[in-house]
Amino acid sequence: MYHGAVMPGRGIEMLIQLISENKKTAAIILGNGDEKFVQKLKAKAQELSVTGRICFHEAVPQEELWKYAGAA
Predict the structure, then answer these.
(1) Nearest in space to 37 (alpha carbons), one of 62, 17, 56, 60
(2) Is pTM beyond 0.85 here?
(3) Calpha distance 40→23 (Å, rounded)
């Protein structure tokens, strides 16, 4: 699970790559960011055939974050 600002330099690209290398894993990317960068990440996930194992979700209020972290 990644949560925070969705922007370059945060390791999100590496997370997507790692999900592609381990078929028994999935990820949620939770946060807001530049739409062009988010689209680039989604294209990378599609290129690596992991769109079914990566969920992109908008940011949630801090008091609800524990629910997502607990589910992950």
Answers:
(1) 56
(2) yes
(3) 22
